[in-house]
Amino acid sequence: MGTLLAILAVLFLALIVLVPLIERFSDRSQPQDYSNLSRWILPLMAVVIVLQMIGYFFLGR
After folding, report:
1. What angle do CA 20, 16, 13 make, to 5 degrees?
2. How far apart are the C-alpha atoms of 50 and 2, rounded to whole Å?
3. pLDDT for res 61
4. Category of 9 on φ-ψ map: left (φ > 0), alpha (ψ -120 to 50) or beta
5. CA dihedral of residues 52, 56, 58, 61 (deg, nearest 10)
6. Residue 56 phi, psi dihedral angles, 5° rounding
7. Total number of domains in the chain
8. Mean confidence (pLDDT) of the chain
9. Interacting residues of 55 by C-beta distance below 8 A, sequence separation 6+
10. Rounded to two decimals, what is the model's pTM?
11. Domain, as residue range, for 37
């Protein structure tokens, strides 16, 4: 239980430190960047679902 709490504490601390740094130093993206990214989401989700089904039915995972 102590190990779990230590891991959670480190992750929470990293989140508190890294999120402001990422927001400060990231470049502001344009809306057309998001449209280019959103075109890939559904095909990638379909691939993930198919791979999960293959793993479940054939590999027993």
Report:
1. 145
2. 38
3. 61
4. alpha
5. 110
6. -70, -45
7. 1
8. 87
9. 61
10. 0.46
11. 2-58
